[in-house]
Design brief:
Blueprint: H1 2-8, H2 13-23, H3 30-42, H4 45-72, H5 75-95, H6 100-112, H7 117-128, H8 134-144, H9 146-162, H10 166-187, H11 208-235, H12 239-260, H13 266-286, H14 290-318, H15 324-353, H16 355-378, H17 397-403
Helix pairs in contact: 2-7, 2-10, 3-4, 3-9, 3-10, 4-5, 4-6, 4-15, 5-6, 5-10, 7-15, 8-12, 8-14, 9-10, 9-12, 11-12, 11-14, 11-15, 11-16, 12-14, 13-14, 13-16, 14-17, 15-16
GO molecular function, one term: transmembrane transporter activity
Organism: Mycolicibacterium litorale
Protein name: MFS transporter
């Protein structure tokens, strides 16, 4: 915990971290808020689900593009324009009629205009703190963002049930606009590095570290979303139990991130953290006792944040500074795609085999994530394109090797 105490005392760290997390809070509200609102308008879960699907498509497709724009035309204009479009499109969606075509188009626009805060801020982190504190800052961010997925759905449900389904969308629009302004004021003169020469869009994907992180993030997020389907299928008859189970998994991720996210865990640690996620999921399916199932979900959560933190810091150190925003944009897309895959496949498996089908899907997806670093390592060393960078050896060899792939 000492590393985190020292971190928050550094200039701008607490302000920027808090502002970008606040601005990203609507990410935890979007799906549920739109689902509830569109279902009320159309009385159709099929239409509501389609609108949410288009929301995910918009996020996954647009995030690398807007992240690249932030690194090339500038952080301020990109964030201001995207926040304005995002806020207005949410207000229009809240006031729109029941036309399915219009609602799906608005869902796509809301997703495509999400401000690229995550890619931008993670490109800024190495500028904000000394090199020895960068790992702890990534860990703090990755751990704290669990609050988005705990607070967001609860806020959306309470606002929709207590007042109107319109209110969560209006609130999300307000948070986006206010939060973006807060972040930009706090960032001051910090800017993502701009490329001095033209670089083709998507060229960052030739970096094996980026591809490895995308596969790992996709597997982790997909496994969690599939597990969510399994938990609801197993405990859905008791809404309190299902909600508590999912909250406990997120709490486990918070504890794991605080305890291990700032440490240099290396290849063995990354694989171990992802394996812990898979083991916890399997135990949830094996145990028939509610207490033991809760313990299993907490255990699974323990590995989530440390693994994600290690993947993020690996990418930060593996790509050129001017490519960082686009690289993290691709990671964001991988997570959105992972969420869609996990939910869809687990839904099909649950229809066919009950909650154990979703648990099996979740475990397999987590296993794929755990194997990806080993497969990348077996493919051979990553040779630098512009020279090697001296880094730690031994158990941290993965991060050392990927840094050279620039």
């Amino acid at each position: 915990m000492r590393a985190y105490r020292e971190l928050v005392r550094m200039p701008r760290v607490l302000n920027i971290t808090a502002s970008q997390l606040f601005t990203r809070l609507p990410l935890g509200m979007f799906s549920l808020a739109i689902l509830l609102h569109v279902h009320r308008l159309t009385d159709s879960y099929a239409v509501a689900g389609a609108v949410v699907a288009w929301l995910s498509v918009g996020q996954a497709v647009a995030m690398p593009v807007t992240a690249r724009l932030a690194g090339r035309v500038g952080m301020v204009p990109t964030l201001v324009v995207s926040a304005l479009v995002n806020g207005v499109s949410m207000v229009v969606l809240a006031c729109a009629g029941p036309s399915p075509t219009l609602l799906m188009a608005l869902g796509l626009l809301v997703g495509a205009s999400v401000p690229p805060l995550m890619p931008v801020v993670r490109a800024l982190y190495p500028q904000m703190v000394p090199p020895q504190s960068v790992r702890a800052l990534f860990a703090l961010d990755t751990t704290a963002q669990e609050l988005i997925w705990v607070i967001g759905p609860v806020a959306a449900t309470l606002l929709a049930s207590a007042v109107s389904t319109v209110l969560p969308l209006m609130a999300a629009a307000g948070v986006t606009l206010v939060g973006t302004a807060w972040f930009l004021l706090g960032a001051g003169n910090l800017r993502p590095p701009v490329a001095q020469k033209k670089v083709a869009f998507g060229s960052v994907l030739v970096n094996r570290a980026v591809v490895l992180a995308m596969v790992g993030c996709l597997g982790l997020v997909a496994s969690f979303m599939a597990l969510e389907v399994g938990v609801i299928a197993a405990l859905g008859r008791d809404g309190v139990a299902a909600g508590g189970a999912l909250a406990l998994a997120s709490f486990g991720s918070l504890i794991g991130g605080l305890g291990f996210g700032h440490r240099r865990i290396g290849l063995t640690g990354v694989v171990a953290a992802m394996t812990l996620v898979a083991v916890g999921i399997v135990l949830f399916g094996v145990f028939d006792n509610l207490v033991l199932q809760f313990v299993s979900l907490f255990l699974s959560g323990l590995g989530f944040a440390p693994a994600m933190s290690a993947l993020f810091i690996m990418v930060s150190q593996a790509v050129d500074d001017h490519a960082a925003t686009e690289a993290f944009g691709w990671l964001n897309s991988a997570m959105f795609v992972g969420g869609a895959i996990g939910t869809a496949v687990a839904g099909i498996a649950t229809e066919a085999h009950g909650f154990l089908g979703a648990v099996l899907v979740a475990a397999l997806l987590a296993g794929i994530g755990a194997l990806s670093p080993l497969v990348a390592r077996m493919a051979g060393p990553l040779h630098g394109l512009s020279g090697d960078v001296a880094e730690p050896t031994g158990d941290d060899a993965l991060c050392a090797s990927v840094r050279a792939d620039r």
